[in-house]
UniProtKB/TrEMBL annotation:
SUPFAM superfamilies referenced in this protein's UniProt entry, alphabetically: RmlC-like cupins
All residue ranges annotated as the Cupin type-2 domain in the record: 49-94
Pfam families the record matches: Cupin_2
Highest rank taxon of the organism: Bacteria
Family annotation (InterPro entries): Cupin_2, RmlC-like_jellyroll, RmlC_Cupin_sf
Coiled-coil spans in chain: none
Protein name (database record): Cupin domain-containing protein
Length: 125
């Protein structure tokens, strides 16, 4: 399990074509991708299972907890991204609600595009 950030603070200012905005790069795939939006309501859970392909979860609203195969939970919030390798066991849950975008594709390497890798994940007590 790897942690990244894609919040405003990790963005790069774009001014080309008279533009004025920030962009945080996320991923480039070399193969087809499945992209979905998941809405977890209060006390929602994406149950403990193995990833069928490499996948990255982008938290866009709310907060929750994730765990990998070691059963240690880590807090995540809007602007955080979590990457799991193919076959890696994982789970996502929330108390108050969470919205996330998931991208699943072979050959993804988020460290090539995403900045602000979290140095120390926020472990849940």
């Amino acid at each position: 399990m790897e942690f990244y950030r894609f919040d405003k603070e990790t963005g790069r200012r774009i001014s080309k074509y008279d533009s004025d905005f920030l962009m945080s790069q996320i991923i480039q795939t070399t193969q087809g991708a499945h992209i979905g939006c998941m809405y977890l309501e209060a006390d929602g859970i994406i149950g403990y299972h193995q990833a069928v392909s490499p996948q990255i979860l982008l938290i866009i609203a709310g907060e929750g907890e994730v765990r990998g195969g070691d059963n240690e939970y880590f807090q995540v919030k809007a602007g955080d991204a979590v990457f799991w390798q193919k076959d890696e066991w994982h789970e996502t849950k929330t108390t108050n609600g969470l919205t996330g975008i998931v991208i699943e594709s072979e050959g993804m390497k988020p460290s090539s595009f995403m900045t602000g890798s979290l140095n120390i994940p926020r472990s849940c007590d």
